[in-house]
Structures are given as structure tokens and as C-alpha cells.
Amino acid sequence: MIGRRLRAIPGRIRSRIAPFWTTLWRPSLHFSLGFLTLGGFIAGIVFWGGFNTAMEATNTEAFCTSCHEMKSNVFAELKTTIHYNNRSGVRAICSDCHVPHDWTDKMARKMQASKEVWGKIFGSIDTREKFLDNRLELAKHEWARLKANDSLECRNCHQYDSMDLTRQAPRAAQIHQLYLGTGEKTCIDCHKGIAHQLPDMRGIPQG
Amino acid sequence: MKAVATIALLASAMLAGCGAKHEETPHRAPSAPVLISAPGQIDPMRRGVPIDADATPPAMARVENFDRIRPVNYEMQPPTIPHSIDNYQLTRNTNRCMLCHTRSNAQTFLAPPVSPAHYATRDGKILEEISPRRYFCVQCHVVQTDAQPLIANRYEGLNTTIPEGGVR
User: Quick check: A36 and A28 in contact, CB under 8 A?
Assistant: First the structure.
């Protein structure tokens, strides 16, 4: 009895889908080929543009700091650092360092960010105390990400080939040449906590 | 009509008087250090600016960032920091100075390691990490700026305090 019903399910689904299928594959009766091609082209631009615009909107500082978790913790800390306040006035926003610039990598990161939406909904870091408790783990994720992509987000602006070592402090020039120039180390190995305060660093390998 | 003009004239004269009263010549503090014993000095830190007048502050000093180790002026002086330390985090959570100056990393970063004394607790126990009583580096080690000293100083280093002819 149940077996017969189960076997009937594919048939029923097929009978539901069949009309749409035939409509999709039959030549159009009312619309010209030109209308369909041009219409498809324009609709494609509109939807693709809309998708990317929405994606870019989630990449703005206003969007990131619309959550108090970001605004009163990490963004407040950023303001005291050189990536916000410096002599030339060129500054970085959240996504410059935390979202890859290439499209495919960006999409992958945005999908990962759905975890952050989950965290927001369930308030996993909605107080300063909770944030500080989780800070080490959150920081570890970012260090691991930057280590894995060879500090790609740093290098979007800071390129070793364009660094004038003679204009750096002697110790900086020396160390950059020794470890960055040879590719032995990557930016994040030494430059942890340049834009935010550091968690308890006991037991974390540095340098 | 005449009365109005007179009042206006009076008012403007009064306003002008007020303006003149508040006008003061700005006091510029000399940039060179001032001798404590200089005549008329009440507070040498003010460099001769009267106590009831505002001084024009000297230009902001810049931190020296040359990485050249400075000589110490007396025995056991904590060496001064020969580079800028802007935004180097030195908190309960982390000590960024020790990224380079810890014994195990000093070789890597070509930095002078902190002396072995910094690893000893006050009970004489030698620790693996820097002793908590030496943790906050900038309590003793400070950066130097290009600012002029406020007060002239005759001290010329350790050698001048030893009497001529050697130790007694």
C-alpha cells in the first residue's frame, strides 16, 4: 500500500512539472526572438548589477558598524591606529582588510559570513564581556585566514616591490628585507594587532 | 535722530575700549633651556613667562627614530629606546616589545635582548619569560624626542661625578 504510494510520487511530481517543462521548451508564440534576446540581456544586466550592488552594500563601513558589536568594539579600537588616523589621510575600512577583493574569494568569504549573521541573531558577542571572551578565537580565525592567503589583503595596498626601504626605519628595512623579501614570512606573522587590540597572547607563536 | 547717533557712537567707543582691554602681547617661551639660577625666575619650568600670562607653547617634539643605541649616562641607567614605539601594545594581554627583545627572538630580529636580570623575580627565581616586575618596559625605558630640555643642566655623565685623580 505504502510502497505503491511511494512509487506514485515521481509520477505525480512529473505531472506537476510537465506543463512548465513544455512551456519552457516550446518556441515562443507571442514574443519575438529579438524581444526575448534583448529582454534577457537587459534583465541580466539589471539582476547582475542589483546583486553586485547589494553585495557591495554589505562591504561598506556604514553596514559593518550598523551592529553595535562592531561599532563599540573593533571599530572604536581601529580609530586610534594608523589605519584610521595618519599623516596622509588615506585610510582603510573594514572590508579592505577583512574581505578579499577578487570576486570568487569574496563570494566564498561572504558565504562564511552567514555564520556572523547567525552570531548576530543569537547574540554570541552582544556584550563587551562576551566579545572579550571570544576575542582570541575570533582573532585566530583572521590570523589563520591571512596566513593561508599570504596576507593578501595587506598586499592589496602594501606591496614589497614598491616599498622604499631607504625611507623606512633602519630596523624595519632590515627585517623586511630579511624575512618579507625572501618570502620566509608573511605580513601577519609579525604585524598582529596593528588595527585592533590583542587578546591574551600567551602561548601564541609570534614573529 | 541726533540722540540715536550719539548712543551708537558711545556704544562703539565702549566696545572698542573692551577690545583694547583684553588685548595682550603673547608671551613666547624661549626654546633654549633656562638656568634655575637665572634672575627673576620663580618657576624655571615656565621659562621666564610671568605666572599670570599664557605662554605660547613650543612646537611639538618628534620622537627620534634612528635605531642608533645611545650611550648611558651613568651606571645601571636603563638604556633609552632608540626608535618610535607608536601604538606598540603593552597591555595585560600582550607585550609587543618582547616580540623582538625577548631572548628567544632577539637573534631573529637583530635586536638587543633584555638583560638576564629581567627574568629574575624579586626572590631571585629565574623564570622562562620576563619577570612580572619587569613586564612594563616603559616604566624605565623611554623614547627620546628632539625637544630642548626645559631647565639647563650641568650634569655631564658619570665621569664628571668622580673626583679628578680617580677613586678615593
Answer: yes
Least confident of A2-6, A111-115, B87-91, B122-126: A2-6
Residues of B in contact with A207 (CB under 8 A): 99-100, 105, 108-109
Q: Cα(B57)–Cα(B27) distance, rounded to whole angstroms?
A: 9
pLDDT at residue A64, rounded to an integer: 93
A91: left (phi over 0), alpha (psi -120 to 50) or beta: beta
Query: How close B135 comes to chain A (CA, Å)?
Result: 13
First to last CA, chain B: 95
Which chain B residue lies closest to A81 (C-alpha atoms)? Answer: B87
Q: In terms of residues, how long is chain B?
A: 168
CB-based burial, B33-67: b 16+ in 10 Å, e otherwise: ebeeeeeeeeebebbbbeeeeeeeeeeeeeebbeb
Q: Which of A79, A188, A206 to mutate to test the interface with B (most CBs of B within 10 A)?
A: A206
- Closest C-alpha among B83, B62, B61, B68 to residue B137: B83
CA–CA distance, A148 with A158 (Å, rounded to integer): 17
Q: How large is the ipTM?
A: 0.75
